[in-house]
Amino acid sequence: MTRIVAGSVGGRRLVTPKGETTRPTSERVREALFGSIESQGLLNGATVLDLYCGSGALALEAISRGAASAVLVDASREAVQAARENVAALGVQRVTVVLSSVQRYLANPAGTPSSLVFADPPYAMPQDELSGVLADLVGHGWLAAGGRLLVERSSRSVEPVWPAGVVRHDVRRYGETAVWHGRLTS
């Protein structure tokens, strides 16, 4: 069972994509991750971009805890359907769910840069493909200056190759999961 950990819709259950091999971020990881984000004052009023969103658990947790808005992007119809069901069931506002590959979505210039970006690609995604996604994210203005980029990978993965202007702020490991924190300095 996947549920929202805390905030205005804390405890509410989320549906997960049917017939998919998605790997939802565990409740334990989300609880620790959001504790860290909140302690740094990064959540209230944040604009969130959730790439490879799956059920939308990361962005919806952010909304529940005070983020101002969120855009969720996934190429899987099943994932997008689950995310849209979750948005409707939770009754949250200012959330948009987009059916698109992340690469195609990021190829366009950003309308409004996001202050908080989650990237949770499949663990099997090659490092060079992830590097391209992160470069497009920054190069096309999707991450606001001073914004945070959180990349979830296997704890056995090497550190992501950060695009120019992004520096590693932290890395947190939770069993099989590692979350790399980057910050756009310019």
In words, what does this structure look like?
With 186 residues, the protein is an alpha/beta fold. It has a single domain, classed as Rossmann fold, CATH 3.40.50. The protein contains five helices and nine strands. It has helices at residues 27-39, 57-64, 77-90, 102-106, 127-139; strands spanning 2-3, 13-14, 47-51, 69-74, 95-99, 114-119, 143-154, 166-174, 177-184. The strands form two sheets. The chain has a seven-stranded mixed β-sheet with strand order 5-4-3-6-7-9-8, with helices on one face. The protein is globular. The N and C termini lie far apart (40 Å). Keywords: Methyltransferase, Transferase. Its EC number is 2.1.1.171. GO terms for molecular function: 16S rRNA (guanine(966)-N(2))-methyltransferase activity.
Keywords for this entry:
alpha/beta, 9 strands, Rossmann fold, two-stranded antiparallel sheet, 28% helix, seven-stranded mixed β-sheet, EC 2.1.1.171, 186 residues, SAM-dependent_MTases_sf
